[in-house]
Hints:
Elements: H1 7-22, H2 26-51, H3 56-84, H4 86-114
Amino acid sequence: xxxxxxxxxVVLALALPVFLLAGWPMLGYAAGAVxxxxxxxxxxxxxxxxxATDDPRKVAGLMTGSMIGRGWLxxxxxxGAGMVENDAGLAAAVLVVVLFTVLFTVSMVxxxxxxxxxxxxx
Length: 122
């Protein structure tokens, strides 16, 4: 089931031929891909950093700051692509929404399997 964690990246790779065959703006694909990969790298680093600390305030700060910052990063990249070419911004936004939907769905499906088993009371 480990491969499912990377299903969003598989969908990102499969979107490239779709963009090419459909004639959609490649700037939109590039902006969406850069935004998605950057936010995913930041998310992974934040999760590792949060798991490495025992301070709940630091965990909350890392996770909250990461969520807000990643949202702004993606929005600004999409906005920038849209300023260059209107259709590119729309294409990037749709690509990111599809990738987010895949990632969110997979994380909800895998969540029960990632929890450490609890000990039953004696």
